[in-house]
Task: inverse folding
């Protein structure tokens, strides 16, 4: 009896997990199958592969300058990520290694900014960019995303694991503080940097509201904005929507599969 | 020893200068693009006028909130999404994490990867996928009809209740795996011998879960509750891409899916621009975040 109960509960566990996994993966399969179907077939719920793949891709590449759009997305995401990691790692290191009561107070204020909803910044930021004359440029998209409380917090938390003996030894050797940061801290903490890279890159690549507000012409649009403008047409061409969704998703999926461990560390590293 | 002591004051001064130098770039950017805009929007919420020509208006905007049915609708919708969706999602995430935490489980890595996968997609990309699956004659309705779960197509896009259900289903799909990651990480750090002892003593599984797992995970449950609350209060991408109309002037049937963030966007960029009033609405979100986060911290405080 007890043994049977155990087998049943074991089967239930596998059933629940399989069901959750299937539901999680299904929309990705739907996206790929959808790209091979015509718009009519997609909205009728056809779930078998069709023969419209080439037609969908062809029409999408005809109507959208795909290379430019992907270049926009990639350059915005990469520049944001590199600057963000550089500047926030300096700050996280600074707050942890050079402690003073004044800086602790500043740090606490920075942590409070984590609770600020972006909607509250939207209008003033838009006016700042408008008065600086940089609306519809990559600068306007990138600038507000560089220094965030989350990434500073992430680096400070991880710096606690940086051995202070290494720092002291380097000081004995006469290295300046910035040299210690560049030539010792960065190489030693490379897994922390990799984890931060994944998280910040994903956020920048996937961001929507701020680019939507700032980027106004077609030449500046990112892939995420293209996906959105495809679907908000009066009669969305879902065949093309699927192609756009694939292009928006593939880079993050690829990074995820290559760097899954860093992704998980990037998310949970700050709550250690 | 003596030399170290003598050099102590200049060293600490050097450390102080270095400290400010290291944090300065981030601090400047945060002041410029976070603190200043924040205070500016507070100031703006007491102003009114068209476009950039704003004049001081006292509490006019706050009074306008109470008489604005669209704002009250957006506020109600946002709170409804919060109250319904966050508990469902966090329970599912906790359930998945506890089930996956068993080292004897086969294909554990595969299940975990699959369940995490949704949180890698952009909010816009997954939103358009959900929109294409949930259209009137679309895939989901076909499946529901074929399995006899529904006797006629579910009006996902045309009925207020079902269009809200669609948003809840979509967000839950996207964020359950994300929250599960935090629970799994926390479970890995728990000392398992207590569980083993309880199991040997014959404490049933549900009691072990409620009396041991949940209390031990309390800090991380608090963390996910606060971050999910902040996230849901800012809900924008999904409603803008799943149920908003083509002109972007409403979301869902009779605005059933209009959220505060979407309303702010409409007030600023779709309707006659009223920056002052939009700023007032945005401060409603700030105040909600502040109240709800403090409430959650207060509820989770250590009672000793």
Result:
């Amino acid at each position: 009896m007890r043994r049977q109960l155990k087998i049943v509960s074991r089967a239930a566990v596998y059933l629940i997990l399989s069901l959750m996994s299937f539901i999680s993966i299904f929309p990705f399969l739907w996206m790929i199958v959808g790209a091979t179907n015509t718009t009519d077939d997609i909205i009728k719920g056809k779930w078998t592969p069709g023969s419209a793949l080439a037609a969908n891709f062809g029409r999408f590449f005809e109507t959208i300058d795909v290379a430019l759009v992907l270049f926009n997305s990639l350059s915005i995401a990469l520049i944001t990520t590199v600057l963000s990691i550089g500047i926030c790692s300096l700050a996280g290191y600074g707050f942890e290694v050079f402690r003073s009561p004044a800086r602790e107070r500043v740090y606490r204020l920075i942590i409070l900014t984590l609770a600020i909803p972006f909607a509250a910044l939207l209008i003033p930021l838009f006016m700042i960019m408008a008065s600086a004359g940089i609306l519809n440029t990559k600068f306007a998209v990138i600038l507000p995303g560089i220094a965030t409380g989350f990434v500073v917090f992430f680096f400070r938390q991880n710096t606690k694991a940086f051995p202070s003996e290494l720092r002291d030894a380097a000081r004995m050797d006469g290295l300046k503080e910035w040299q210690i940061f560049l030539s010792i801290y960065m190489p030693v903490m490379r897994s922390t940097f990799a984890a931060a890279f994944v998280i910040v890159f994903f956020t920048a690549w996937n961001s929507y509201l701020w680019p939507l507000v700032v980027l106004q012409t077609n030449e500046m649009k990112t892939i995420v904005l293209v996906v959105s403008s495809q679907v908000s047409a009066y009669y969305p061409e879902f065949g093309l929507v699927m192609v756009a969704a694939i292009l928006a998703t593939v880079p993050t999926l690829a990074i995820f599969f290559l760097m899954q461990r860093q992704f998980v560390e990037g998310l949970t590293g700050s709550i250690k | 020893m003596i030399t170290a002591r003598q050099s102590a004051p200049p060293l600490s001064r050097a450390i102080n200068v270095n400290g400010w130098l290291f944090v300065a770039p981030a601090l400047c950017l945060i002041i410029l693009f976070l603190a200043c805009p924040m205070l500016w929007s507070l100031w703006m919420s007491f102003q009114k006028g068209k476009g950039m020509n704003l004049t001081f208006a006292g509490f006019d905007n706050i009074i306008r909130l109470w008489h604005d049915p669209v704002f009250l609708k957006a506020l109600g919708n946002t709170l409804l999404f919060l109250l319904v969706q966050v508990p469902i999602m966090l329970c599912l995430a906790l359930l998945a994490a506890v089930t996956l935490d068993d080292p004897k489980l086969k294909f554990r890595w595969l299940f975990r990867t699959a369940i995490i996968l949704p949180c890698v997609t952009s909010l816009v990309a997954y939103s358009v996928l959900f929109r294409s699956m949930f259209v009137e004659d679309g895939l989901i309705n076909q499946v529901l009809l074929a399995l006899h779960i529904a006797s006629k197509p579910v009006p996902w896009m045309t009925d207020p209740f079902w269009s809200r259900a669609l948003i809840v289903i979509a967000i839950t799909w996207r964020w359950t795996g994300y929250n599960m990651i935090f629970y799994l990480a926390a479970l890995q750090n728990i000392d398992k011998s207590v569980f083993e002892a309880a199991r040997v003593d014959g404490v049933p599984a549900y009691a072990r879960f409620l009396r041991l797992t949940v209390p031990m995970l309390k800090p991380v449950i608090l963390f996910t509750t606060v971050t999910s609350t902040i996230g849901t209060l800012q809900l924008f991408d999904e409603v803008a891409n799943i149920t908003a109309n083509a002109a972007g002037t409403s979301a869902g049937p009779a605005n059933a899916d209009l959220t505060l963030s979407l309303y702010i966007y409409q007030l600023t960029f779709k309707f006659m621009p009223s920056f002052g009033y939009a700023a007032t609405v945005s401060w409603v979100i700030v105040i909600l975040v502040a109240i709800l986060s403090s409430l959650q911290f207060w509820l989770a405080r250590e009672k000793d």
